[in-house]
Amino acid sequence: MAKELMLAAIESTLSCLFTEGPQDLKKIDEAMAYSLLIPGKRLRALIPLLILEASGQAWQKGLYPACALEAVHTYSLVHDDLPCMDDDQYRRGKLCNHLVFGEAIGLLAGDGLLTEAFYLLNLGYTKGHYPAETALKLIETLSFRAGRYGMIGGQLLDIEGNEDDDATRLRRLHSLKTGALMEAAFLFGAYLADLKEEEIEFWSDFAQDFGLLFQIQDDLMDVLSTQEEMGKKPGSDQEQNKLTYVSLYGLEKSQALAEKLFFDLLKGLESKNAEGIKIMLQELKNRVR
What distance in Å separates the CA atoms of residue 264 and residue 177, rounded to the nearest whole number? Predict the structure, then answer.
């Protein structure tokens, strides 16, 4: 029940970002809203709210940071889909942003979503949801993990390619491209809940393996799922000759890696009162059957 309430609150907060605006700038609002408001799992947005709930605190105070994470995630998808990057056609079952609004406006929409995230982090502070010290921690966390030594660095490794395609490089690539923002989501929850240092370290470590499991499952879905299930064309990684867990390890070993990660993560939660995270973990495992 709590998860449904959280999702409804996230959708409402995101929708309210586009209720007013200058008429002559309506096009950028439309382009940003198009990608941000397409229904999705809202995985990264839910994580800090679930950690707040697990800590016995009001999850509502994390809504603006949660939406900031969703804005950054969506910006990364919009830019990933551009012709100069992955040149995809569909995302979440809809035409990619640049195919609806044009490449230039698609680029601006991504830029706008990234910038909006930091406005949202400040908005949570100005509305009294958390103190200035917490706001600064959130800003530092997001700016670093979405920046050149986080998501952007991971994207660089992804598009550059390398003759030395091995396990070390693959782990490095995805710890930045996927894991960095995932870690930010867990750290957001820990900072908003004002957890002790050892708890912050636990969630940071947990996030790395959670992000790895997410990526392996994503690689498996690219091979095993349909376009309807994925919301985008399957098999694109293979077409672009990308380094993935399936391309490096094969299907069976990748499935075994995912299975081990799942049970290790579940075991790590045994001493935690974090039912929402446990359910999310199970849902992540069930993405690929």
Answer: 22
Tens-place pLDDT, residues 39-52 = 999 999 999 999 99
Q: Would you give the DSSP letter of residue 165? A: -
Question: What would you measure as the largest C-alpha separation in the chain, in angstroms?
Answer: 54
pLDDT by residue (tens digit) across 134-192?
Answer: 999 999 999 999 999 999 999 999 888 766 668 888 889 999 999 999 999 999 999 99
**Cα torsion 113, 102, 30, 4: sign:** negative
Residue carrying structure tokens 């309506």 = 26
Nearest to 116, CA basis, from 238, 13, 253, 7? 13
Helix (H) or strand (E) holding 89: none
DSSP bridge partners of 152: none
32 and 91 Cβ atoms separated by less than 8 Å: no
In angstroms, the CA 166 to CA 155 distance is 17
Tokens standing for 78? Answer: 């919009």
How many other CB atoms are there within 10 angstroms of residue 166's CB atom? 11
